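Sample intake sheet
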Amino acid sequence: MTSPFIIASELAVALGGAEPPAVLDASFVLYPAKFDGDYRTESGRGRWLAAHIPGSQHVDVATQFSDLSAPVHYAHPDPQAIADELARIGIGAGDAVVVYDQTGGLFAARLWYLLTWIGVDARVLDGGLAVWQALDRPVESGEVDAPTAAAPWAARAVREAWISKDELASRSQTDSRPLVCGLPSGSFTGSDPSRYSRRGRIPGSVNVSARELFAADGTVKADGFLRDAYAEQGVTGDDEVLLYCGGGISVAANALTLAELGVTAVRIYDGSLEEWSADASLPLEVG
């Protein structure tokens, strides 16, 4: 099994090869809520301008790879819209892609999830730019020429990747599939402020915080740690794993780490707590 991660030394070799991968910096800042309803974001483009892997380009997941007509943030576009945007920025059918970010890895994971959903050969740079720089790999700064568009190409979904609010709301209490929340424990229990309408978690869910699966330097923790973290919450990979968080971003890192363990039967609830909490008829648990 090929790891969904690529390490810096491996990427350096690939970039010097005959067919180097396209490299996308997905940096984006989603600030922690200081009070209920506090929703603040910041583009990561300034960080990319300050320093980036040579040849990379910055992409904004919130606008370029989200359905802007949806009532929630970051809703996935259809497969062809993703392919059309990739072609616009110079990535053609069959091109390999490496994604990274400078903001904790979650938006790189989200972009990876979207790209692999339509069959793109995409991997995530383990540790992102920080590890790349720590190993004295070269960086550039400032603007670059706009890429030449690639030929348009047809796209389709290659796997089931999403679960809807209605499907979750009608889920039987005897359903054995684990429902995993990827938010930090304070958000899961409702003790921390929420960006959304109400605090709490979807009933029946368990908590595997996405951020706890990565070391302080941003690299993914060892497979044994990952496997134990999931197994402690009843996630063994024997059943399909259902994932949610606040808005479908953090939990993409859960999907990424599960893929590292060979678990690919996963689906993300895109609307997550942003959509669920806005529907007063749907329950939330706290504590």
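Comment: The chain has a mean pLDDT of 97. The CA atoms of residues 134 and 217 lie 10 Å apart.
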